[in-house]
Amino acid sequence: MALSIAVKEWKLLLKEKGTFFWLLLMPVLFIVLFGSVLGNLGGSDVSVPYIDLDKSAASQSFLQALGEKSGYKLVEKNPGERDDQLSRIRDGKEAALLVVPQGFANGVSGQGGEQASVELYSDPTSQTVAPLKAAIENVAGGMRESKIEGALMAAGETGEQLQAALASPLRIDDKPQVASAGNAVTQVVPGYTVMFVFFVIISMIRRFIGDKTTGMTARLRTTRMTPIGYLLGMWLAYLVVALAQCSVLLAFGHFAYDVQLGDLGAIAALVITLAVCGTGIGLAICMLVRGENQGMAFTQLLTMGGAVLGGLWFPVEYMPKAMKTVSHFVPQYWAQKAFQDIMVRGDHLAGILPSLAALAAFAAAGLLVALLRFRGFMKSALD
Questions:
Q1: What is the Cα–Cα distance from 287 to 212, expressed in whole angstroms?
Q2: Helix (H, G, I), strand (E, B) or coil at 97
Q3: Is 286:368 a contact under the CB 8 Å cutoff?
Q4: Which of 68, 129, 125 minimizes the C-alpha distance to 98?
Q5: In order of start, what are the domains of the chain with their CATH numbers?
Q6: Smallest Cα–Cα separation from 101: which of 49, 62, 59, 136?
Q7: Cα separation, 193 vs 28, whole angstroms
Q8: What is the residue-wise DSSP string for 332-367?
Q9: Burial annotation 149-168 (CB, 10 A radius, 16+ → b, else e)
Q10: Nearest-CA neighbor of 194 among 325, 9, 343?
Q11: Fewer CB under 10 Å: which end of the chain, C or N?
Q12: Using a CB cutoff of 8 Å and minimum separation of 24, what contacts does 78-82 make?
């Protein structure tokens, strides 16, 4: 009998086009939007205009090195456009303007006793400026080394002596401890997958409150359907919906953005546990709220608040210490952590057992509350 209730719910959901948009199309749009935007931050698509007043081999070499080290696309402007570019910076339309003044080559070569300089006009609020300054300093460091090398060669130093003099006093032995490098997409795809699992609760609330309002719940007493069978059937229906939703979103991330899912067995265990958790909490909310509006408010608080605290929109590492502690008390944190452990750190099922246990605990608490409150829900349907 529970299965017949689930089948009925699936048929109703398939007839509702809005549900398809809310549970599948909208999360896909979010993944595309934020994956595309965040995935390109700091990339070569960001352009920085420059004006070369020196027009020397030294200035061209400097600009070429800067473009390679910064990753930005340097766009040349005419000297007559200088005032216009500065106006664009003040209006917030440009981040910076780099000017290589006349006499740059003489300063680099040390002629005339003047130090080479460049002028950087910038908007200090732009995220482009700090990496650009770091790249300029990096190029300047390379030029300084070249100058020192020339002076040492002129002093008659040998090649080995030059190498020893210019060698860095610090060496970095890079020893990665994760299976693959994480990026914005590996944050966005599992993050929005977890987030929209909890939006399934909205459909659950509408259905439970709708059945109670229309009298369908009260009519269960006149059928062979047991109340617990009705509850299990409704839970089964949305559990399958959550499983399908997670599968579609993760598959989209894999094929559209080449997100490496890692151990599929561990992913499957995580998706099942997450779906049980989300729908279990959903059942509890359905049994506790008195109306649809109240249920929507609870759901918005759970989904949006949990998304922020759980690190679905940005890594938990960016949060203050107190917020990091609070994040352990929301299920979204454990789901996102498990996804990151599998996809980025290469963990298998054994490595995510603590996260699965935490999600299972949230699920058990939700189901227990739903069972304890179900009698009151049925009684209110008869009033």
A1: 11
A2: strand
A3: no
A4: 129
A5: 2-38+184-382 (no CATH), 47-163 (3.40.1710.10)
A6: 59
A7: 9
A8: HHHHHHHHHHHHTT---GGGGHHHHHHHHHHHHHHH
A9: eeeeeeeeeeeeeeeeeeee
A10: 343
A11: C
A12: 78/51, 79/51, 79/53, 81/51, 82/51
pLDDT tens for the chain, residues 1 to 383: 667 777 777 777 777 766 667 677 788 887 888 776 665 544 446 789 999 999 998 889 888 888 888 778 899 999 999 999 999 988 888 889 999 999 888 887 766 667 788 999 998 888 788 888 888 888 888 777 666 566 656 666 666 655 665 555 555 565 555 555 556 788 889 999 999 999 889 888 988 888 787 777 767 666 676 778 888 888 898 999 999 999 999 999 889 888 888 899 999 999 999 999 999 999 999 999 888 888 888 888 998 999 899 988 888 888 888 888 999 999 999 999 999 999 988 889 999 999 999 999 999 999 999 998 888 888 776 66
What are the strands of the beta sheet with 119-122, ordered from one edge?
Answer: 73-76, 47-52, 96-100, 119-122
